[in-house]
Specification:
Layout lengths: L16 H57 L1 H28 L1
Helix pairs in contact: 1-2
């Protein structure tokens, strides 16, 4: 059975190496432009968050430094606190599940 004239595609000439390179370079350039536009949009969208973060920056650094100092001096205390926090979280999950089943 012969293919019909409707389905026949015109023969395409394969692109030369220089043409493929030019197409790829153009695609890369477009991707770079897209990244620049998106990064500008991201910076504009995040600027309110960045400005409000600045007011918490110094206190968080101080708390983090104090926690690091305490951890360096007494590492067992941090491990005990971590175990207690994990146990509290698991207890909370279990109680939440029991409350859901009871209703």
């Amino acid at each position: 059975m012969k293919p019909s004239a409707d389905n026949a595609k015109p023969p395409t000439n394969p692109l030369s190496r220089a043409e493929r390179k030019a197409l790829l370079l153009a695609e890369l350039e477009q991707q770079r432009v897209d990244i620049l536009v998106d990064s500008d949009y991201l910076q504009q969208a995040a600027s309110p968050l960045d400005q409000s973060w600045q007011s918490f920056k110094l206190p968080l650094y101080a708390v983090g430094g104090f926690a690091a100092y305490k951890l360096a001096r007494h590492p067992g205390g941090a491990m005990a606190a971590g175990r207690k926090a994990l146990a509290g979280y698991m207890l909370f999950k279990k109680l939440k599940l029991l409350a859901k089943v009871a209703t």
